[in-house]
Each structure stands twice: as structure tokens, then as C-alpha cells.
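Bumping with the actual sequence this time:
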Amino acid sequence: MPVDSGEIDCGVQGAESSDEVALDPRTHAYYIREEFVWGLMSGHPHLNPVDADKANSEIQTCCIDETPASHS
């Protein structure tokens, strides 16, 4: 009989590699940072659990411009 451990597996599949992290949502909220590093032919994904303070700090300083580009 399967036993529910309460863990959730989060994964990402790249062309050359994959990464997976197991989280227990009963302990606290999680943020997961996804990073890519160059492999031989493509990017390799990495999942990194981040605590709430670090995540909120990184979100506030994120440099992504979400303003839609105007078309002239």
C-alpha cells in the first residue's frame, strides 16, 4: 500500500540533463529558483530551494522589464 510522505517532487527536464527537488509543504512555504548553466550544446537546468527572505529580496531586485514593447 503506498504511503503518503507529504513530499512533493518538482522537476525540470532540459535537452541534456534534468534536475529535481523534493519539498515538504507541511513545514513551510517554498520558493524555487531555476537557473540555467551552459552544457555542451544547451542549457542545464538547476532548481534551488530559497527561503522566503532571500526570495523576496531577489524578487524586489529582479531586472526583468515587464512593460510591453510599443509597436510604432
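The C-alpha cells above came from a reply further down the thread. The longest helix spans residues 52-60.
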